[in-house]
User: What shape does this take?
Amino acid sequence: MFVKKSGQNKGFTIIEVLIVLAIAGLIMLIVFLAVPALNRNARNTQRRDDVAALMAMFAETLNNNNASQPATCNGASATCWVKDAKLSIIDNTTATNVVWTKNASAPGTAPTNTNVDNVVIQNYLKCSGSVATTTGASSRSVAALFAVETASSSTSQCIES
Assistant: This one.
């Protein structure tokens, strides 16, 4: 048989409330730390996809024009990529700057790129990991250098066609 004590209060103790608040705070901390990383990864995936599509369009341009490469141009120029209308999907009004540099006779110095707003495309380049190199490259070797975000800065990436 149960005996009911008189004057017993119903409700939570201060310890129970503090434990619940500590758990809620821990969950909030995990969420606030994870969301920026998820956003950064989504932007990096989009950059990789955009550069891969750009390189595919560039390869198609070469195939359609008997391996004739377009002249050197800067994405901010309205006349860039006039050899193939498909490459005109580059939006010249955005901050992204696509620069194509054509080396006419021999490879120069392999460029670097750690600016997430730029894509540098150049012939006489091959990818060696995440950097471009001129070793073993020919005039038909084309590589694109772009940067992806990291937790504290950015790092260079390379894709070749």
